[in-house]
Amino acid sequence: MIETIIKRDGSKQPFSPTKVNQWGEWAARTLGTRVDWSSVVLHTVNTLPKECSSQVLQQRLIKTCLEYNSWSYNRMAGRLYAALIYKSIFDDNIPSVLELHHKLQEIGMMEHLNYSDEEYAQVEKLIDHSKDLKATHFELKQIREKYSLMNRVTDEEYESQQFVYMRMAMALSEDQPKDRRMADVEAFYELLSNKVINAPTPNYVNLGTPLRGFASCCLYTVNDNAQSIGVGDHIAYTMTYMSAGIGAHHQIRSLGDPIRGGTIKHQGKLPYYKSLVGVVKSSLQNGRGGAATTHFSMFDPEVNLISQLKNPMSTEDKRIRGMDYSAGTNKFYARKAAKNEDVFLFNIFTAPDLYKAFYSSDEQLFATLYKKYENDDNFKKTYVNARNTLLTSLNEAYETGRSYLHWPDEMNRHTPFNEKIYLSNLCQEISLPTKGYDNMKDLYSKEDHGRGEVAVCSLGGIVISNIKSDEQYEKACYYTLLMIDKCIHKGHYELPHLETTVKARISAGVGIIGLAHHMAKKGLKYSSSEGKQEIHNAAERHSYYLIKASLQLGKELGNAPWIHKTKWPSGWLPIDTYNKNVDSVVENELQYDWEELRREIISNGGIRNSVTTAHMPSESCLHEDQTIKTSLGNMTMKQIFNLSEVSFEEAVSDYDKFNGGQWYDLKTPIHVKTRFGLKEVERVWYNGSNNYINITMENGDVIKCTHHHKFLVKGVDGKDYWKMAIELNEDDDIVTHMP
User: Fold this and answer.
1) Which of 557, 601, 637, 729 is most enclosed, with most CB atoms within 10 A?
2) Is 52 a catalytic residue?
């Protein structure tokens, strides 16, 4: 029970139950009977020592709320957390937007925004800090820890949530016409602060600052020569430190193929994959290492090896876990797998025309060329079973959750682009044309020479569950595309040719966010026919209003300079090439006037963006994090790392960088529950993340753990021995001790 409170200034005063009750009552004020604030307060007070600081008391109140694990208690925690943020950052003296911006500009964290004092006065009337008191704890925590401006060396913080949104709104509207600029500031701020628009991390972190890296995704291809491979690594390195996730495609020879007429034997793709991991992990993005997904063909001669590079059980020389993998397949391969037939393997060197046909929408051309090579006795063929190879890849996807499939034939069919598409991005929602560079000179030229292209996509999201009408949806689409447009043209491009192609394409990827919440509010299940129809209708509305907004921006700002390289000028619409199998899932009765939209697009010669839609990963299943019992309660690894000198993300980055585990010292020792009672520990070992396996006990209990988790087992000599989960035998006698 608390007796003494230590104030922030170090002074001490007797604990006041009345004051802490007022905190609890205030935090629960808008939640009615959905929370029991008195129980939160009582539990918190009873778990704290006789003397503690006011900050610890606030943090423990928040922790108690979160332990109830409900939406209402998370909102209660949010109000307490908002108050803690204002106290910690501003000492309850919230500055004006102008005052804060002047401070940030003086220390070099913000650049000067071209607004008058009168306009700043209008901004002050727009910003609404009370919105933070309605936010959930996880919302505030996400913004504070990931997106707000702070000195990550000294941990000095500068912004609360509303200041972040206003900084973004003002930076996006700065160069708008004078007669509409403040209206655009208001619109951006309202849409961002009301969680109608969801922006990508680079926008939150970099808008209004000297940092101008806004690209969310970067995709590139390398050709089958040493210079191109080197250029590819340079692209990956540069775009990683410019805040982009990486999608890579190596259209190169395979292990054992001849080089220079056979004087050198090709060492395969693995050395180049290892090099890619090295350059991507060498730079940090807001405290974490970069990330990449590399793409390969299911017909590649190294397919079985590449498919298992992510597997922790692969041998050291055949394991590259520092990036993700995506296997490319097509309908031809799928039919072979369905019939349990064999396929022969090929690559860009052994069958260049067949390889190019694989990356096209022409199924007949691919089948014809495949048959030609199959009947050619002079063509050396290695066969594998299509089903077994596919199952290996799918099993890796299931086991690791970080191996994917992409379908080049479908990507090149259902697309507004005329050029060839080889790959997707880091998270697999983007499909854009790329072309390999054969030398660094072309990459550093601003000329529209056509000898290479790095694809970049800027992302945004529409939070469907927070939209009440079609009019609001249309407005959200317009301002999301305008946000992306501003970021593309404000952005700094370290690679000169990238600036040329990005501003010529103006590719946007706007996805649907909050679909699960939207479905829950309507009482619909994904699996029901009504639920599927609702998703179909939502997707149609999303696509229609994005294209309509891009058309409007095309009229205001001009069409994308390379719009002629797309199907838009001819009147193409996604309803023309969608997969007709959808018609067997839902009734495809369109809600909007697509034909009128088509006529307007043709009349305008196209739209502002080469592409408008991309549904990025945004929904996730809830799961319980593995925890460790400590004197402070059950703690996850992330929570434990909060007590160390480095973050959990840095530990993950270190593991990938050094390819092994590391010890990390804790700032303050903690007591961990062991079979012998509490044990004080001063450091923590991180050895990477591993897949779970299930250990079923005799009584039917299932223990979920990693392969390397150790169990105490009774030996034949009666002594206890430690064995890893992967080493357990069916008849092992596991020693258990109740805590």
Assistant:
1) 601
2) no
